[in-house]
Amino acid sequence: MSVTPFRPTFRRRILGATCVAALALALAGCASKSQLTTGSIPTLNKPLAAMNASELHSAAESVGRAYDRNPKDPAVGMQYASVLTMGGRADQALAVMQQVAIHNPNNRTVLAAYGKALAGVGQFDKALDAIKRAQTPDRPDWQLLSAEGAIHDQLGDPATARERYRKALDIQPNEPSVLSNLGMSYVLQGDLRTAETYLASAVRQPGADSRVRQNLALVVGLQGRFGEAEKIASAELSPDQAAANVSYLRAMLSQQNAWNKLKDNDKHNTN
């Protein structure tokens, strides 16, 4: 079946909702590689991506108390910013990372996390500058290359974005977060078939998480395969997480006023 071309307003909404998420995925784990991790970081009982709203609120309270005790500690500050971002408090996350960056101006991991926070509030030029300063040409970091790509996509430069993603894949072959970013780059240009190819590959890789599956579900849904999209969105998750993913999928598709149309088409195609 044919798919209605993206309206400009829809593309902007897709861009905001997916590429910032892709940027977060690209930088996920940067803090864990830091040599500055200390025993002062509160231990969380599950990954942030698997937490519901109540759990994220509790985590923010716990990590926030540690941050209040030592706002100069880069590891604590980055963890606090990550929790805030996952909880939808991007402005506060940026304020935290600004303070951490002031106290740790030469730390690559801090600069990368600061770039992530800047991108989370739409300050893409500043984000790109921070991430470039965190990068080292002699030993390039694939996560930072992927993050650069996500920002270039936000700035409307898909050619540069994809060149960064492919460099990242040269360093870290088949990395699901990079493949997901590359797929979403094609979504922004309306090339859903190519996007699905990369996203399907990303989902098959070890380490692919719920955010990668959400991106694939969105692309499948945008092509009118509603039932398949819902199945992908709810795969391998708890009932609460599956319901949240399906709600996200419905919200994204409704931006194009497509949900009921796709549902009707799906029913018609199965009869």
Automatic annotation (TrEMBL):
Cited InterPro entries: TPR-like_helical_dom_sf (IPR011990), TPR_rpt (IPR019734), UCP035836 (IPR014596)
UniProt keywords, alphabetically: Signal, TPR repeat
Domain of life: Bacteria
TPR repeat boundaries on the chain: 142-175
Pfam annotation, one family: TPR_19
Residues making up the signal peptide according to the UniProt record: 1-28
Name of the molecule in the record: Pilus assembly protein TadD
Biological source species: Hoeflea olei
